[in-house]
Amino acid sequence: MDKTDGQKGREQGQPSGPGFPYWGLLLGIVTALMINGLIFPRVGGNRIVPTDYGTFISKVDSGLVKAVVIEDSQILFRAGTADGKSDTTYRTGAVNDPRLVERLAGAESPNKDGKILFTSKTKQENSALLNFILWWLLPCVLMIMLWRSAGKSLKARMGGTGNFMSFGNSGARIYAESQIKTTFADVAGQEEAKDALMEIVDFLHNPGKYRAIGATLPKGALLVGPPGTGKTLIARAVAGEANVPFFSISGSEFVQMFVGMGAAKVRDLFKQAGEKAPCIIFIDEIDAIGKKRENSIGGNDEREQTLNQLLTEMDGFDGTKGVVILAATNRPESLDKALLRPGRFDRRIQMELPDLEGRKAILNVHLKKVRHSDIDLDLVARATSGSSGAEIANIVNEAALRAVRTGRGSVTTEDLEESVETVMAGAQRKGKVISDREKKIVAYHEIGHALVAALQTDSAPVHKITIVPRTSGALGYTMQVDSGDQVLMSRAELLCRLATLTGGRAAEEVICGTVTTGASNDIEQATRIARAMVTRYGMSEQYDMMELETMDNAYLGGDTSLSCSAETAAEVDKVVLGMIREAHEKARELISANEDVMHEAASFLLEKETITGEEFMNILHRHCHPQGQ
Ligand code: ADP
Ligand code: MG
Ligand code: ZN
Q: Would you say the CB of residue 387 lies under 6 angstroms from ligand 1?
């Protein structure tokens, strides 16, 4: 959303610009050569007509020749025609003719004093300067030209950003943006992060206050969190608030083709930042260089050198000068410990997925950028549970696009709701034809989920069910709306969730007497929940509070790895299966007991393609009251 900011107020941190710097020199050389007559013949002006020596002699004898220039290998002469009208310059090969001078001196000419003007000219020796240019400078320049253009095309093919090769420095073009418009107001929610960064802003504003008391600010702060939570955004906002230059570079940009180039780039970066202090250095996706160093052979030399250089630079610079280093990553656990020790990135700022209030705030920030009518913020915020800031920004934009598509002048709540579905489940595929029987199965499947959810008091009510096919391949979509933001989930709630997930398949079995592939996603989710309950949440009787699995990459989907013996793993599988089975059984019972609700809600859905949570609850209440109340 704030992409344009980056382009404004850019100022080049280093004078060596792109382009070819030797044009001036090249032009000079060419001019010098032209003056020396090496490129163009030196008898200026008219065309030179080649002729033979005999003609020359006969023209001399007949008194038409006016001037002669004798050179080493040729003779140039100017002669008029018999009627004396126009002069022509001729060229003829030089012949070893000892009587030529005599002949010329004695000959008549139509010149004023009746004599032929003649002179001899030896081929001029090139000057020392010209020789130098010709034999040394020109080849060098050509070499450099070739080298650079080869480097550029190679670089372009590799899609890299650094310079392929250059002399003296790393060739890094590091930009310091001097005027950043992003402020903390653009970052919604994330109050804790803002608080933590506020101190840095204050320090950059008046370092004197801190120096007076002898306090040094943390040199670096590490922004940690899942993708799209605004890490890059908040780093820019710090620079915008502090109104200082902002050096932004991505970790991957340091990793170069040649060992040592990355390290040189780091050196350059810190040198330039030192000159511009106070300023902010932001290293995005620092895990690209900051990964743990390994002592095994075959480690990445270049990366480790770069990291070492970074560590050295961070130690080396004066903390009171006002250079603050921010870095962002979504894989904090992979970072080298040395980076995290005090004196380097000792401050860690957590950026979590936004909660309900946070999502409302983010919606507000992004809605400011589009024209909109009255929006039910609460509803949209609830519907986007689990979304990151980036996703919400995307949802608002999708809604604006939808408004344009339908020819309206402003975004409505309905646009937003629809775009939530689009972003989460893919766009509607109205053209896709599905058979009536399949449609029916989809309807019962979705209603099955909803019914099981509604009948269990702990489950979140459904906001809306649609059975329009989606581009993601889903044939139906149930939008769950959390009533509030929960941080903790109880065992009972998780079990309800399990039952709800199995509700779709249960409906297929009980009502349609079949099972379909439509439940694959449910199966995946249910298994993940059940497994986590046993292995990580200590929610099974068998394993009590024992950790059976460790979680890596918590911010990137969360891979897990077993930390128990193979026998235990086999046992765990049984326990997980038991839990899922129990939930499935419960779902089947609930659906069998409420078949009439199923039929009515499903036919409503089949007819209208959409059923809201309210309409569904009306049908449910007409038939029965939720159990367990
Ligand atoms: P990250 O670096 O954490 O992956 P970004 O900072 O690049 O995420 O966020 C991408 C976009 O998402 C931002 O440009 C912004 O439009 C939006 N966004 C993310 N978090 C927020 C937030 N807290 N407030 C407002 N917009 C946000
Ligand atoms: Mg980022
Ligand atoms: Zn399902």
A: no
* 519, 467 contact by CB (below 8 A): no
Q: For CA atoms 397, 398, 399, 400, give the dihedral sign.
A: positive
Which pLDDT score, from 0 to 100, does residue 599 have? 95
What global pTM score does this model have?
Answer: 0.63
For residues 326 and 250, the answer to whether their CB atoms sit within 8 Å is: no
| pLDDT for residue 58 | 85
Query: Which among 343, 516, 393 is positioned nearest to 443, based on CA atoms?
Result: 516
Q: What is the pLDDT of residue 504?
A: 93
Q: How many Å lie between the centroid of ligand 3 and the Cα of residue 449?
A: 7
Q: Is 228 in the pocket of ligand 1 (CB under 6 A)?
A: yes
Distance, CA of 339 to CA of 241 (rounded, Å): 26
Longest dimension (CA), the chain: 138
Whats the size of the chain, residue-wise?
629
What dihedral angle (degrees, nearest 10) is formed by the CA atoms of 185, 187, 189, 190? -120
Counting ligand 1 atoms within 8 A of each CB, the residue from 5, 229, 395 with the most, and so the one to mutate, is 229
Using DSSP, state whether 103 is helix, strand or coil: helix
Q: Is there a contact between 514 and 508 (Cβ–Cβ < 8 Å)?
A: yes
Q: How far apart are CA 529 and CA 131, in angstroms?
A: 81
With a 6 Å cutoff on the Cβ, whether 233 touches ligand 1 is yes
Report whether 621 belongs to an annotated binding site. Answer: no
| Model pLDDT, residue 528 | 92
Query: How remote is the CA of residue 508 from the centroid of ligand 3, in Å?
Result: 10
Give 550 Cα–ligand 3 centroid separation in angstroms. 28
Can you give the pLDDT at residue 10?
A: 38
Write down the pLDDT at residue 157.
44
Tell me the average confidence (pLDDT) per consecutive run of 10 residues in the chain, 629 residues long: 37 41 62 54 62 85 83 83 77 82 77 76 69 81 78 47 40 68 90 89 84 81 91 92 89 73 85 86 88 65 82 79 87 85 84 88 93 89 86 93 92 90 76 81 92 75 78 74 71 91 94 91 93 92 88 74 88 95 96 94 90 87 64
For residue 567, the number of C-alpha atoms closer than 13 Å in the C-beta half-sphere is: 0
Ligand nearest to the CA of 445: 3
Contacts of 203 (CB under 8 A, 6+ apart): 210, 217, 322, 324
Q: Give the closest residue (by CA) to ligand 1 atom 27.
A: 389
Please tell me the predicted confidence (pLDDT) of residue 513.
93
Number of Cβ atoms within 10 Å of the Cβ of 320: 16
pLDDT at 156: 46
| Confidence (pLDDT) at 9 | 37
Q: Is 361 in the pocket of ligand 1 (CB under 6 A)?
A: no
Residue with CA at minimum distance from ligand 1 atom 17: 390
Written as six digits, the tokens of 171 are 């060739």
- ∠147-153-155 over CA atoms, to 5°? 95
For ligand 1, say whether the CB of 104 is within 6 Å of any of its atoms. Answer: no
Q: Which positions ≥6 away from 8 have C-beta within 8 Å?
A: 177, 179, 181
228 marked among binding-site residues: yes
> What contacts 55, CB < 8 A, 6 or more positions away?
90, 92
* Interval between CA 363 and ligand 1 midpoint (Å): 12
Tell me if residue 446 is catalytic: yes
- Measured in Å, residue 517 CA sits from the centre of ligand 3 at 10
The catalytic position among 285, 302, 446, 509 is: 446
Determine whether the shortest distance from the Cβ of 240 to ligand 1 is under 6 A. Answer: no
